[in-house]
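Amino Acid Chain and Its Fold in Token Form
===========================================
What this section holds: a protein sequence and its matching fold, both as plain text.
Structure line: whole-number tokens from a learned vocabulary of local backbone shapes, matched to residues.
Purpose: to set a sequence beside its fold so the mapping can be learned.
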Amino acid sequence: MDLHPGMKVGLFGGSFNPAHDGHAHVAETAMRRLGLDRVVWLVSPQNPLKSSHETAPLSERMASARAAAATVGPAMIVSDFETRIGTRWTVDTVRALTARYPGVKFVWLMGSDNLASFHRWRGWTDIMRLMPVAVVARPGSQLDSRTAPAAARFARFRIPAAQAGLLPSLQAPAWTYLTAPLNPRSSTAIRRGEAQSPGGG
């Protein structure tokens, strides 16, 4: 990845099974509000919290991520970094990237649906202490995510959304919650729709 010291870079991890315009909405919102130079879509080999039998092959998910990322613009990078370093744990990915790209101002990006279960992630408190985190509101999860265990535990490190542009330069732990016009698309709904409509109609 072509990343240089001083760059502000969002890391957007997920299984992207498939990627869709809701993901693009999160990436675009974070990029605009945080003043990011790049957003790296990290396509996971397998989400540890999700069933593997429902997960499409990595090549298909990479292709759908590239298609969704392309709708945002050329500052989007789609990567299989986790597969290449042999991990499926975000905390390992974060450590590896910060070691490989010293001086890059990374921010972990997630939809609010992920914040609600963030406390179940391996090493989640380490992630919060390794880099700033930006949470983008997603439909149906705003209330849960605002009362999520992770939000409560790190409440005093939350910065107002109006100051989100400062986040990439802040020392972790630091996080913010961004609201934007909500996009209701979800990978689960898309998969269910495809299962019900084999013809894709």
